[in-house]
């Protein structure tokens, strides 16, 4: 599996720069700065970006606040035209942006392109939405009155995003925010700043074609946690949409709440699947393999726990172990391997620590070792690990952001639902069953407690049409489809009296 990375003429930095050139990113934005950017594909440095400081954050928020005053007056369908143009520009840039996602986040080509497709899909959704920002008309108890609700633009939206969906999360927020009348200030992950610069360059082209959008409608802030903190603390940021670890959410959530700001928190997951006696095992096997090993286990919706009924355990688990032993692992830029790199050494170390803890708790580990023959030493590729656990204890209760699947037996349906829900996170879940009663029970009020509950598909790979997000320590936020747009607008209830009298609600009398 030696490849062009071992060819002395290949340079990932040059490859990156060529992609950035084609995407129209100004080299001044990624050269000579203090934030070093690395590709997990080879572990090598690709760029050095100038960073923003607290004053620059304040200035950016100021520009966005000014832009809000103008943008909120633009009719929503006209705002939708900007997002339509963004969708066109994304279509034109899909190949290059997808490759940049692979370079920066280590995703396979298909997943890199899939992430850009998700951006295009949410643009299409938002364009339609720009003509559907409906409020209700509500029956009033007072004669000669009309009551209705109106949705207004909210204000500046601060977006903080994680490394593993470096561009899709921005687009979920930005496409909705723009049609809802809100400017966006984006603090991408410090591990994936280049895809952010590229996304902004693509939006800049849409803005140029649009013509009369205000300055500061969409801005990118480069830097680490401190830059995110400055954004979170600025009272002019009406909504903070923050995607990342539960640890980050514990810091961001209370700060925004303390100033009565609004937040959408999209945090960690500890997602489980249940394989029941009636499951289509061939289908379950494929769904579990993608859900647990895809994106090298670095999706918020990655399947991390699997409960298998005693009666089918010996039919499916040995096959899964075989799939883990044979799955292709390799450089996502030059091979069609299904599993790419972990993002960095810290991710690999966390994976190894979790596997040690699992062994100490009585687990039997299959796989999990470092794979060294696909890339230089600075990159971290690992064979996904399947761990047979006697119980749901120790590391099984936490999200380790790596490809580890803990497998446990169960015998009683009611008990497995209890166990399924007995972790902090509440993002995604799935059941494999052909039994209607089990399927419906899993989706019912006393079934899965997650924001996403699936039947006969895996935990990962959501479509943009549904609202995305999870409960409990996943933060409760909802993004993307359905009525998630309401989070980006403020609702006013309006009552109009067109009579000549002034009847008070609840029959209250106050005659002067
Ligand atoms: P992370 O929490 O380390 O960082 C996420 C972002 O938060 C980065 O931009 C970081 O700079 C910023 N940040 C960190 N601390 C901050 C603070 N105190 N104030 C303001 N900003 C701060 O996460 P990561 O390692 O980049 O991503 C992996 C995590 O993200 C996993 O836990 C994964 O489950 C989660 N995730 C969740 C979703 C979701 O939709 N629920 C989607 C993708 C990733």
Q: Which structural class do you get from the secondary structure elements?
A: alpha/beta
Shape: globular
The DSSP helix count reads 13
Write the CATH architecture name of the largest domain: 3-Layer(aba) Sandwich
What does this structure look like?
The chain has 2 domains: 13-267 and 475-492, Aldehyde Dehydrogenase, Chain A, domain 1 (3-Layer(aba) Sandwich); 271-463, Aldehyde Dehydrogenase, Chain A, domain 2 (3-Layer(aba) Sandwich). It is 38% helix and 20% strand. It is built from 13 helices and 23 strands. The strands form 7 sheets. It has a 7-stranded mixed β-sheet with strand order 12-15-16-11-10-18-19, with helices on both faces. Strands 7-6-5-8-9 form a 5-stranded parallel β-sheet, with helices on both faces. A 3-stranded antiparallel β-sheet has the order 3-4-23, with no helix packed on it. The longest helix is centred in the N-terminal third of the chain and has 30 residues, at 76-105. Bound molecules: nicotinamide-adenine-dinucleotide. Residues 160-165, 187, 189-190, 224-225, 228-229, 232, 243-245, 248, 251-252, 266-269, 300, 399, 401, 427, 474 line the site of nicotinamide-adenine-dinucleotide. Its EC number is 1.2.1.3. Residues 34-491 form the Aldehyde dehydrogenase domain. Keywords: NAD, Oxidoreductase. Homotetramer.
